[in-house]
Amino acid sequence: MKSIVFLVIAFFTIHEDCMSQTNIVPIDAYLSEVPSNSYFKDLFDEMNVFTGTWKYTAANGEVLTIVLEKETMVATRGHYEDLLVGAYTYEVNGTTLVNTLPYLEDTQITGRAHPISGRTIVKSPTAVCDSCTSSERLFSLYFHDPERDYLSIKMVVRSIPNQNTPAKIWVKLYSYSGGMLPDANVPTVARVPYGEYVLEKQ
């Protein structure tokens, strides 16, 4: 019994010691400008407004559902970070074309292994969003299609201001350079169409 108590005390002592040596920085700090073992923390809870289940429904039968969660102090490449993570489903006329929601239910999948993940603050909001102001804080996240993992896709997400209930977010999906096609015959776009969506909180 004494051995168990000792091990518990030792664990928390080591944990507290590690935490005391961790340099806490804002989520939008540059990795190249901070020491190793830094913690990129969501100091002002900016991610919280995006958590939850969001749905876009169009007259043509399109339904895009995105679920976002916040994970804190995720160990990533020599530092720690708070992340927005998530998954999605996309269907047309009742037929599901892609469903990544099981990723969120799998406790072995954490951090950037999710279909949606990231913490990058968009530096120039008006460059990606016509109705945005330069002072808004938008997040740029990685958007992964498991069946087309050779594609490089980004998802920009914005909380639409001055709105009534239910809350809404604006999402933009687009391809960016960096991916390499495995051969000339593979699809070159994601199964969720690129473009802009307005989703309501469920």
UniProtKB/TrEMBL annotation:
It comes from Neptunitalea chrysea. Pfam families: DUF6705. This is DUF6705 domain-containing protein. InterPro entries: DUF6705. The lineage of its organism: Bacteria, Pseudomonadati, Bacteroidota, Flavobacteriia, Flavobacteriales. Residues 1-202 form the DUF6705 domain.
